[in-house]
Write a structure and sequence with these properties.
The protein is an alpha+beta fold. The chain has four helices and five strands; from the N terminus they run H-H-E-E-H-E-H-E-E.
Length: 167
């Protein structure tokens, strides 16, 4: 095939892919999610650290308090994980300026404030994973840990940290 024709076809394909790419924030808006500016850290740390093409996000908590298996249901925990994820995305946007710069959600670590006999931490942290995949598609698929904690600061139900690859 003629090299000029190959170049033209590749250019058209690239333009088509770019034109059809969906921006993250309108997708979040369709989901009823608005990203507010992140709150300032309450201690001597920063919410996000970028090194190279990776952003490490500090643990972000839900607004929900209580212990899974005692005070809260799995559904309430799932919603708490969504809340923490929205806070993470707010901090990520503040760091990057635009969530469309995300290349991949690499790793999520979810901590669930739960009773010793509660074993459904993965179902709780699905609130985070489901939101990330709904917003970012395949880019949102990530490695993950979901662990139970005897306690979290201020009795928050969920704390989540995340590693993100960016442009």
């Amino acid at each position: 095939m003629n090299p000029k024709r190959v170049f033209l076809l590749l250019s058209m394909l690239t333009a088509s892919v770019v034109a059809n790419a969906q921006s993250i924030e309108p997708t979040l808006a369709k989901m009823g999610i608005t990203l507010a500016p992140p709150a300032q850290p309450m201690a001597n740390y920063v919410k996000a650290v970028r090194t190279g093409n990776l952003v490490f996000l500090a643990g972000h908590v839900s607004t929900t308090t209580g212990k899974l298996g005692v005070d809260l249901t799995i559904e309430q925990g799932y919603e708490a994980a969504r809340q923490a994820t929205i806070a993470l995305l707010s901090s990520l946007k503040a760091e990057l300026g635009n969530l469309d710069r995300v290349r991949r959600i690499v790793k999520v670590t979810g901590f669930v404030n739960s009773s010793p006999d509660f074993g459904d931490q993965p179902k709780v942290i699905n609130g985070c994973s489901d939101l990330l995949v709904a917003a970012f598609g395949d880019t949102g698929k990530h490695a993950r840990s979901a662990v139970g904690m005897a306690a979290l600061p201020s009795n928050y139900a969920v704390e989540i940290e995340m590693v993100v690859e960016v442009e």
